[in-house]
Amino acid sequence: MGKKKFFRGPVKREPEPYRVNERINAREVRVIDEEGRHLGIMDINSALELAYSKELDLVEIAPNQNPPVCKIVDYGKFKYEMKKKEKKEKKVQGGEVKEISFRPTTSLHDVEIKLKKVKEFIEEGNKVKIRIFFKGRERMMFEKGKEIFYKIFEKMSEWAEVEKEPTPLGLNQYIAIIRKKK
Protein backbone atom coordinates (compact mmCIF):
# COMPACT_ATOMS: atom_id res chain seq x y z
CA MET A 1 0.00 0.00 0.00
CA GLY A 2 1.21 3.48 -0.76
CA LYS A 3 1.04 6.59 1.35
CA LYS A 4 -2.36 7.65 2.54
CA LYS A 5 -3.48 10.94 1.03
CA PHE A 6 -5.22 13.45 3.21
CA PHE A 7 -7.88 15.82 1.98
CA ARG A 8 -6.89 19.33 2.98
CA GLY A 9 -10.11 20.97 1.97
CA PRO A 10 -10.91 23.34 -0.86
CA VAL A 11 -8.39 25.95 -1.94
CA LYS A 12 -9.19 29.26 -0.28
CA ARG A 13 -8.96 32.19 -2.63
CA GLU A 14 -9.61 35.81 -1.90
CA PRO A 15 -12.78 37.08 -3.58
CA GLU A 16 -12.37 39.01 -6.80
CA PRO A 17 -12.62 42.78 -6.17
CA TYR A 18 -14.41 43.38 -9.50
CA ARG A 19 -17.27 41.67 -11.30
CA VAL A 20 -16.20 40.42 -14.71
CA ASN A 21 -18.16 39.38 -17.85
CA GLU A 22 -21.17 37.18 -16.92
CA ARG A 23 -20.89 38.05 -13.22
CA ILE A 24 -22.11 41.60 -13.90
CA ASN A 25 -25.77 41.57 -12.86
CA ALA A 26 -27.00 44.92 -14.23
CA ARG A 27 -29.30 45.11 -17.26
CA GLU A 28 -27.73 48.26 -18.68
CA VAL A 29 -24.17 49.50 -18.29
CA ARG A 30 -22.17 52.56 -19.25
CA VAL A 31 -19.28 51.27 -21.40
CA ILE A 32 -15.77 52.64 -21.77
CA ASP A 33 -13.42 51.04 -24.30
CA GLU A 34 -9.75 50.11 -23.86
CA GLU A 35 -8.53 53.57 -24.97
CA GLY A 36 -10.77 55.35 -22.46
CA ARG A 37 -13.43 56.53 -24.93
CA HIS A 38 -17.02 56.63 -23.69
CA LEU A 39 -19.20 54.37 -25.86
CA GLY A 40 -22.49 55.19 -24.13
CA ILE A 41 -25.13 53.20 -22.29
CA MET A 42 -25.76 49.68 -23.63
CA ASP A 43 -27.59 46.60 -22.53
CA ILE A 44 -25.30 44.00 -20.93
CA ASN A 45 -25.50 41.48 -23.81
CA SER A 46 -24.34 43.92 -26.49
CA ALA A 47 -21.54 45.17 -24.18
CA LEU A 48 -20.37 41.58 -23.62
CA GLU A 49 -20.49 40.87 -27.38
CA LEU A 50 -18.39 43.98 -28.02
CA ALA A 51 -15.81 42.90 -25.41
CA TYR A 52 -15.68 39.32 -26.72
CA SER A 53 -15.28 40.51 -30.32
CA LYS A 54 -12.13 42.39 -29.23
CA GLU A 55 -11.01 39.30 -27.24
CA LEU A 56 -11.08 41.30 -24.00
CA ASP A 57 -13.12 41.29 -20.78
CA LEU A 58 -15.91 43.54 -19.55
CA VAL A 59 -15.01 44.71 -16.03
CA GLU A 60 -17.42 46.56 -13.72
CA ILE A 61 -15.32 49.39 -12.20
CA ALA A 62 -18.02 51.57 -10.63
CA PRO A 63 -20.90 49.35 -9.48
CA ASN A 64 -22.56 52.07 -7.36
CA GLN A 65 -23.21 54.40 -10.30
CA ASN A 66 -26.52 54.38 -12.09
CA PRO A 67 -26.06 52.63 -14.57
CA PRO A 68 -22.85 50.86 -13.48
CA VAL A 69 -19.65 51.82 -15.32
CA CYS A 70 -17.88 48.98 -17.13
CA LYS A 71 -14.59 49.04 -18.98
CA ILE A 72 -13.41 46.79 -21.79
CA VAL A 73 -9.92 45.62 -20.78
CA ASP A 74 -7.72 42.54 -20.44
CA TYR A 75 -8.63 41.55 -16.85
CA GLY A 76 -5.25 39.97 -15.99
CA LYS A 77 -3.40 43.11 -17.08
CA PHE A 78 -5.97 45.30 -15.27
CA LYS A 79 -5.46 43.42 -11.97
CA TYR A 80 -1.67 43.68 -12.34
CA GLU A 81 -1.85 47.44 -12.91
CA MET A 82 -4.15 47.91 -9.89
CA LYS A 83 -1.72 45.98 -7.62
CA LYS A 84 1.16 48.06 -8.95
CA LYS A 85 -0.81 51.25 -8.27
CA GLU A 86 -1.56 50.14 -4.67
CA LYS A 87 2.12 49.43 -4.02
CA LYS A 88 3.09 52.84 -5.37
CA GLU A 89 0.48 54.57 -3.16
CA LYS A 90 1.84 52.73 -0.12
CA LYS A 91 5.35 53.96 -0.90
CA VAL A 92 4.13 57.55 -1.26
CA GLN A 93 2.49 57.35 2.17
CA GLY A 94 5.91 56.90 3.77
CA GLY A 95 6.61 53.22 3.47
CA GLU A 96 7.03 50.88 6.36
CA VAL A 97 8.67 51.51 9.70
CA LYS A 98 11.75 49.32 10.07
CA GLU A 99 13.37 48.81 13.46
CA ILE A 100 17.06 48.21 14.27
CA SER A 101 18.19 47.36 17.79
CA PHE A 102 21.42 48.12 19.61
CA ARG A 103 22.72 47.40 23.10
CA PRO A 104 24.93 49.80 25.08
CA THR A 105 27.77 47.29 24.70
CA THR A 106 27.49 47.05 20.88
CA SER A 107 30.94 47.44 19.30
CA LEU A 108 31.67 50.24 16.80
CA HIS A 109 32.13 47.77 13.94
CA ASP A 110 28.67 46.27 14.57
CA VAL A 111 27.19 49.78 14.75
CA GLU A 112 28.68 50.58 11.31
CA ILE A 113 27.25 47.39 9.81
CA LYS A 114 23.81 48.16 11.21
CA LEU A 115 24.05 51.74 9.90
CA LYS A 116 24.60 50.36 6.38
CA LYS A 117 21.32 48.48 6.77
CA VAL A 118 19.64 51.67 8.05
CA LYS A 119 20.91 53.51 4.96
CA GLU A 120 19.44 50.81 2.68
CA PHE A 121 16.05 51.08 4.41
CA ILE A 122 16.02 54.88 4.14
CA GLU A 123 17.00 54.80 0.45
CA GLU A 124 14.02 52.48 -0.17
CA GLY A 125 11.78 55.20 1.33
CA ASN A 126 11.10 53.59 4.71
CA LYS A 127 11.27 55.21 8.13
CA VAL A 128 13.71 53.65 10.56
CA LYS A 129 13.25 53.36 14.29
CA ILE A 130 16.50 52.81 16.20
CA ARG A 131 16.19 51.18 19.59
CA ILE A 132 18.78 50.79 22.32
CA PHE A 133 17.66 48.27 24.89
CA PHE A 134 19.10 47.77 28.33
CA LYS A 135 19.23 44.54 30.35
CA GLY A 136 20.13 43.95 33.98
CA ARG A 137 22.96 46.20 35.16
CA GLU A 138 22.98 48.02 31.83
CA ARG A 139 20.01 50.03 33.13
CA MET A 140 22.53 52.25 34.87
CA MET A 141 24.05 53.13 31.46
CA PHE A 142 21.28 55.37 30.06
CA GLU A 143 23.91 58.06 29.41
CA LYS A 144 25.97 55.58 27.38
CA GLY A 145 22.85 54.97 25.29
CA LYS A 146 22.68 58.67 24.46
CA GLU A 147 26.39 58.61 23.53
CA ILE A 148 25.68 55.81 21.05
CA PHE A 149 22.83 57.85 19.56
CA TYR A 150 25.11 60.85 19.10
CA LYS A 151 27.73 58.67 17.37
CA ILE A 152 24.99 57.42 15.07
CA PHE A 153 23.84 61.02 14.39
CA GLU A 154 27.37 62.02 13.34
CA LYS A 155 27.73 59.12 10.92
CA MET A 156 24.36 59.53 9.24
CA SER A 157 24.03 63.32 9.17
CA GLU A 158 24.82 63.43 5.41
CA TRP A 159 21.94 61.21 4.24
CA ALA A 160 19.33 61.18 7.04
CA GLU A 161 17.80 63.35 9.71
CA VAL A 162 16.21 62.67 13.06
CA GLU A 163 12.43 62.84 13.05
CA LYS A 164 12.05 62.19 16.76
CA GLU A 165 14.65 62.89 19.46
CA PRO A 166 15.81 60.08 21.81
CA THR A 167 12.99 59.14 24.16
CA PRO A 168 13.28 56.64 27.00
CA LEU A 169 10.46 54.14 27.16
CA GLY A 170 10.80 51.57 29.94
CA LEU A 171 14.11 49.77 29.44
CA ASN A 172 14.51 51.12 25.90
CA GLN A 173 15.46 54.36 24.17
CA TYR A 174 14.10 55.15 20.71
CA ILE A 175 14.74 57.58 17.86
CA ALA A 176 12.98 57.79 14.51
CA ILE A 177 15.01 58.55 11.37
CA ILE A 178 13.84 59.66 7.91
CA ARG A 179 15.54 60.59 4.64
CA LYS A 180 17.15 64.02 4.61
CA LYS A 181 15.14 66.58 2.66
CA LYS A 182 17.05 68.12 -0.21
Automatic annotation (TrEMBL):
Pfam family, one: IF3_C
UniProt domain Translation initiation factor 3 C-terminal: residue ranges: 96-172
InterPro entries, per database record: T_IF-3_C_sf, T_IF-3_N_sf, Translation_initiation_fac3_CS, Translation_initiation_fac_3, Translation_initiation_fac_3_C, Translation_initiation_fac_3_N
GO cellular component annotations of the record: cytosol; membrane
Subcellular location: Cytoplasm
GO MF terms, alphabetically ordered: ribosome binding; translation initiation factor activity
Any GO BP annotation: ribosome disassembly
HAMAP family: IF_3
Subunit structure: Monomer.
Protein name: Translation initiation factor IF-3
Species of provenance: candidate division WOR-3 bacterium
Gene transcribed to yield this protein: infC
